[in-house]
Specification:
Strand content: 35-45%
Largest sheet: 4 strands, antiparallel
Order of helices and strands: HEEEE
Radius of gyration: 15 Å
Length: about 80
């Protein structure tokens, strides 16, 4: 990740929505869910997303665990009109 990239999503609601899956995986359990959210990209363009997400904890070496997150769109991004 570039140091120019944010360390979080641009949307606090999206972070709140997806956090439980990561928490589960950090505790050692895989998480499979469907995420549906209205959010915006880094340029501020509004969109609706619907995707499947699998988060799997993977042990690297004897003690270190990393999370692997795989996503697959269920339908294309729905770009929303700009609001005045």
């Amino acid at each position: 990740m570039s140091h120019d990239s944010p360390n979080k999503t641009p949307d606090d609601e999206l972070e709140r929505l997806v956090a439980p899956g990561y928490k589960s995986a950090l505790e050692g359990d895989p998480s499979l869910d469907i995420v549906q959210v209205s959010t915006s990209d880094l340029k501020g363009r509004a969109m609706k997303l619907l995707y499947e997400r699998l988060i799997v904890p993977v042990r690297v070496g004897k003690y270190r665990r990393v999370l692997c997150c795989m996503t697959a769109p269920i339908k294309p991004i729905e770009w929303l009109p700009k609001q005045a």
